[in-house]
Amino acid sequence: MIAKSYIENNLKQLDRLYNNSRTQKKELYYAKLAMLELCGWTEETMDDIVQKCANRVLKIRANKLFIKNKVIKPTYGFEYEKHFKKMLISVIGLMHTEKIESKVDPLKYATLTSALGSLKTARNSEAHTHLKGVTRSVDAPSVTIRNFKYVYEGLKDYENKLKGLGL
Question: How far is CA 4 from the centre of its chain?
Answer without folding.
Answer: 12
